[in-house]
């Protein structure tokens, strides 16, 4: 064990983030993941004031290293690609036990870009994303994902808010894939990941095999999400919008989300998806849905309503990305070679193609501001909770997409922020079972497990950022906690609990809830 005085001395000698960067009053994003600031180096001279580089400083919420933060840091230290966000440096503060991540600053993201065009449509002044820009965005997203997949990494939480776009500067118009907090290494042959994370990926962009409980899902889940993003760029509307997006559950099956997919795509036929019978939730699917309710639904009809013709190369590529059967879904490499990218206008490294950028820059937030995302989440959660209470008695196969503008804000505005809409990741001791063997993560894991990372006390190694949802003992809401209350997950039933409700004071490596212990005798 490291001597306490030595740790204090080491901490005092370590470079502090506030000594190097000016960011006070420059908050540009916040959420359950923490806060993000637009920062500048303090040693920049007045002479270079107009050319000073901007950075994104992400302060991780809570005290200690969460599983999501560990995974994000470890992967980003190993991954280097023009279309993947670059982690420049990690700052650890002993005094307040905070973790700061330094990234390049991205002025835009796809969520805000699509919102801009959706607002124009709502104001009766339709302004679609330019065809060349859509193509450039999609190509760069595919390029970044191809790099991740080539290195055996699944992103697992692709959505517009996690696709950043650089503003003015040397990387103008460059796409950056962000939010590696839920990324995972995968092996060949594939190992089951569902035991560790029953629910991953925001519902709207979640592949049907995930919703049906697939245990050996593959990189095809990222391809489905890219197809959803592609459709959203073409139409300015989320293709599989569902009102209950923010509900957290350990059960991957989501009736309303499947209903929305079927209302767009039609009900999957066994001849089109031979393995659908092998899905764990297939019996529930047959019980809840009637094939006849979706006979008039198809992707062709949906896109035609948005003036995307089935003869177009864009539609042909979209079809390949959104195939129900994951084994038939196109790969990122195949998609990059699609004829769609060979016709004019050709994809550009600057998605704005040298034209003036019409999108507004990020605004600074104050502590008194109510972030749009927080408000939207509260409204969605309240409505979703009410719907969930009545769901068992009122399940139906009606279209839940609704109409009008979609009220949602990105969880991550600038950097690789852990998504608020996903359940917490597994604990540190469960990493090796998945094959997460990156050297950076191994070292981080050992130090975090011992409660010390570079002289910084980790306080028990557990994550303190609370997931939305309720404790299975007291049924108190996790997100109501303000005192750093730790949450823990039972290895048997996967239920989430407040540590105090189970009579525990610290994060355990092997936790089994009282109910499961009693059931086991």
UniProtKB/TrEMBL annotation:
<keyword id="KW-0547">Nucleotide-binding</keyword>
<dbReference type="Pfam" id="PF00069">
    <property type="entry name" value="Pkinase"/>
</dbReference>
<feature type="binding site">
    <location>
        <position position="58"/>
    </location>
    <ligand>
        <name>ATP</name>
    </ligand>
</feature>
<dbReference type="InterPro" id="IPR008271">
    <property type="entry name" value="Ser/Thr_kinase_AS"/>
</dbReference>
<feature type="compositionally biased region" description="Polar residues">
    <location>
        <begin position="390"/>
        <end position="402"/>
    </location>
</feature>
<comment type="similarity">
    <text>Belongs to the protein kinase superfamily. CMGC Ser/Thr protein kinase family. CDC2/CDKX subfamily.</text>
</comment>
<dbReference type="GO" id="GO:0005524">
    <property type="term" value="F:ATP binding"/>
</dbReference>
<dbReference type="GO" id="GO:0008270">
    <property type="term" value="F:zinc ion binding"/>
</dbReference>
<keyword id="KW-0808">Transferase</keyword>
<keyword id="KW-0479">Metal-binding</keyword>
<dbReference type="InterPro" id="IPR013083">
    <property type="entry name" value="Znf_RING/FYVE/PHD"/>
</dbReference>
<feature type="region of interest" description="Disordered">
    <location>
        <begin position="363"/>
        <end position="404"/>
    </location>
</feature>
<dbReference type="InterPro" id="IPR011011">
    <property type="entry name" value="Znf_FYVE_PHD"/>
</dbReference>
<dbReference type="GO" id="GO:0008353">
    <property type="term" value="F:RNA polymerase II CTD heptapeptide repeat kinase activity"/>
</dbReference>
<dbReference type="GO" id="GO:0004693">
    <property type="term" value="F:cyclin-dependent protein serine/threonine kinase activity"/>
</dbReference>
<dbReference type="GO" id="GO:0005634">
    <property type="term" value="C:nucleus"/>
</dbReference>
<keyword id="KW-0723">Serine/threonine-protein kinase</keyword>
<dbReference type="InterPro" id="IPR000719">
    <property type="entry name" value="Prot_kinase_dom"/>
</dbReference>
<feature type="compositionally biased region" description="Low complexity">
    <location>
        <begin position="380"/>
        <end position="389"/>
    </location>
</feature>
<keyword id="KW-0010">Activator</keyword>
<keyword id="KW-0418">Kinase</keyword>
<dbReference type="InterPro" id="IPR017441">
    <property type="entry name" value="Protein_kinase_ATP_BS"/>
</dbReference>
<keyword id="KW-0862">Zinc</keyword>
<dbReference type="InterPro" id="IPR019786">
    <property type="entry name" value="Zinc_finger_PHD-type_CS"/>
</dbReference>
<protein>
    <recommendedName>
        <fullName>Cyclin-dependent kinase 8</fullName>
        <ecNumber>2.7.11.22</ecNumber>
        <ecNumber>2.7.11.23</ecNumber>
    </recommendedName>
</protein>
<keyword id="KW-0863">Zinc-finger</keyword>
<keyword id="KW-0067">ATP-binding</keyword>
<feature type="domain" description="Protein kinase">
    <location>
        <begin position="22"/>
        <end position="341"/>
    </location>
</feature>
<dbReference type="InterPro" id="IPR050108">
    <property type="entry name" value="CDK"/>
</dbReference>
<keyword id="KW-0539">Nucleus</keyword>
<dbReference type="InterPro" id="IPR011009">
    <property type="entry name" value="Kinase-like_dom_sf"/>
</dbReference>
């Amino acid at each position: 064990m490291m001597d306490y005085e030595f740790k204090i001395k080491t901490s005092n000698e370590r470079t502090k983030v506030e000594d190097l960067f000016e960011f006070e009053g420059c908050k540009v994003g916040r959420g359950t993941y923490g806060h993000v600031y637009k920062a500048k180096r303090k040693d920049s001279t007045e002479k270079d004031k107009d050319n000073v580089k901007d950075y994104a400083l992400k302060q991780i919420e809570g005290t200690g290293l969460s599983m999501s933060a560990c995974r994000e840091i470890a992967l980003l230290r190993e991954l280097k690609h023009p279309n993947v966000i670059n982690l420049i440096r990690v700052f650890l503060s002993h005094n307040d036990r905070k973790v700061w991540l330094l990234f390049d600053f991205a002025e835009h993201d796809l969520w805000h870009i699509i919102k801009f065009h959706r607002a124009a449509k709502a104001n009766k002044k339709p302004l679609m994303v330019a065809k060349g820009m859509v193509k450039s965005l999609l190509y760069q997203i595919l390029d970044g994902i191809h790099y991740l997949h080539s290195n055996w990494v699944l992103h697992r939480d692709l959505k517009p808010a996690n696709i950043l776009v650089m503003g003015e500067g040397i990387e103008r118009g460059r796409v950056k894939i962000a939010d590696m907090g839920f990324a995972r290494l995968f092996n060949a042959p594939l190992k089951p990941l569902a035991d560790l994370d029953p629910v991953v990926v925001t519902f709207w962009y979640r592949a049907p095999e995930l919703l049906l409980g697939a245990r050996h899902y593959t990189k095809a889940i990222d391809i489905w999400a890219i197809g959803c993003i592609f459709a959203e760029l073409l139409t300015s509307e989320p293709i599989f919008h569902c009102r209950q997006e923010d509900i957290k559950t350990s059960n991957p099956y989501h009736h309303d989300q499947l209903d929305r997919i079927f209302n767009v795509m039609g009900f999957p036929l066994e001849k089109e998806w031979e393995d659908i019978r092998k899905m764990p939730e297939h019996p529930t699917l047959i019980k809840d849905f009637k094939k006849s309710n979706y006979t008039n639904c198809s992707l062709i009809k949906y896109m035609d309503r948005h003036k995307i013709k089935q003869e177009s190369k864009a539609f042909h590529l979209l079809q390949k990305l959104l195939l129900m059967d994951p084994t038939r879904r196109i790969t990122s490499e195949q998609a990059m070679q699609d004829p769609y990218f060979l016709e004019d206008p050709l994809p550009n490294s600057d998605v704005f193609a040298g034209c003036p950028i019409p999108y507004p820059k990020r605004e600074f937030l104050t502590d008194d501001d109510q972030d749009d995302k927080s408000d939207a989440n509260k409204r969605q959660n309240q409505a979703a909770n009410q719907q969930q209470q009545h769901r068992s008695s009122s399940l139906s196969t009606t279209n839940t997409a609704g109409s009008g503008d979609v009220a949602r804000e990105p969880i991550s505005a600038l950097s690789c922020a852990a998504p608020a809409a996903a359940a917490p990741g597994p604990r540190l001791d469960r990493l090796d079972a998945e094959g997460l063997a990156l050297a950076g993560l191994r070292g981080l894991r050992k130090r975090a497990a011992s409660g010390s990372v570079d002289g910084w006390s980790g306080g028990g190694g557990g994550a303190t950022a609370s997931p939305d949802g309720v404790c299975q003992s007291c049924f108190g809401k996790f997100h109501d906690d303000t005192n750093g209350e730790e949450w823990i997950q039972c290895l048997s039933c996967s239920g989430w609990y407040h540590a105090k409700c189970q009579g525990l004071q610290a994060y355990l490596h092997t936790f089994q809830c009282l109910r499961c212990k009693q059931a086991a005798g």
